[in-house]
Known about the structure:
Alpha-Beta Plaits, Antibiotic biosynthesis monooxygenase, Dimeric_a/b-barrel
Amino acid sequence: xxxxxxxxxxxxxxxxxxxxxxxxxxxxxxxxxxxxxxxxxxxxxxxxxxxxxxxxxxxxxxxxxxxxxxxxxxxxxxxxxxxxxxxxxxxxxxxxxxxxxxxxxxxxxxxxx
Length: 113
């Protein structure tokens, strides 16, 4: 389990879109196969969802001590996408990259559990 005393300096953001009628099924799959393993490695994880008329967008933000720690999980190129086995079945299009951002300021309770 991640050391909670460490402070994140990096956020890694992944986005994916699914057809609205499959959003609940994908949410459950994403949690079990993608989020749970990530929770064991990252300092923190947030999984967000926006439902629209025809599609739902999922955003996963993971927080890391530094790029080296993130690379131990994501590989030598932390921007490289690691698609889950069933992502081609669910996602409207497979993401080509993730965003990696430096955390400049973080304050307060971000919610979630």
